[in-house]
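Per-residue structure
===
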Amino acid sequence: MIAQQTPLRARCLDLAGRQHGVVARYQLVESDIPTTTIDYGLKSGFLFRIFTGVYSVGRPDLSELGLWMACVLASGHGSALAGRSAAIAWGFQDRPRSRISVVRPGNDGHRDWARLKAHGHQSRAQLVTSRCRWLQPEHVTGFQGIPILHVEPVLLQLAGLMNSDTFQHAFWEADRKRGLNNRRLEGCLDVARGMKGAAAFRQSIDCRMPHIQEALSLLEVLLMELDRKGKIPPPEVNRNVEGHLVDFRWTDRRVAVEVDGYEFHRGHGSFERDTERNNDLRARGWIVLRFTYRMLRYNPEYVIRTILTALESHPPTIVAGISTK
């Protein structure tokens, strides 16, 4: 085992503390650690190989953050987490993937398989490093110390990987959760010419929803899209009604809409609380409608028709004692 006072151990622990438990061989060499000493660290069980030239320090396992950091280190200087992997990191794609996407400027891509399995992954991850001709330093930022593409260039990549509907939903989620930067979007449009997905990327920018950050879920965004297209009258979003928070309401018509059906809740407790809220509102003269993702996604005309029918059935009234804040 490596003694605590050795330069190798000290340097590894310093780097690992900032890099989610992983180090690159070139970092150690640049710190004047002899290659023979690094090799001894591998043989002694202090370092564990993840990729060629990238190691886990002190233990043969990885967090997902450690895996992402290892992939970036294995891809060389200037590399950054990208594509669906970056979308997962930024929080607008929610399925863990064992294929990790990294981009780097001006070099040929390569593929490799991690020798260690990360927590949350069913199998060893595959690293896919791609050459990115349009990658600029301003496209890269940090996520918990890991080089990663900003959300906007990630979306530009995804536009070429997804069908139009799936990409639109990803764009909405990114805007809802992260709030897209107008300057970076314009910069991505400049490099998008001729790229696959450029038209879908431009269309999503042209059709951005105002106040999308007010939505608490993608389901609410889908209903806001009906409002944006003029299919339904503008509702108030996430407001208090008779002491209850509802997703959408038309106060003068006493109509409320919820778009998070039972299948989107966690357990019977939430379902029962929703039922009590709906019963209370109905007892006070409100129409309460519920729609699921499938209804909004695949049968929007039914949703539009039902909302309009409810609004027409309740003539405008002045509702006292209801906060609009």
Q: What stands out?
A: The chain has two domains: 59-206, 216-313.
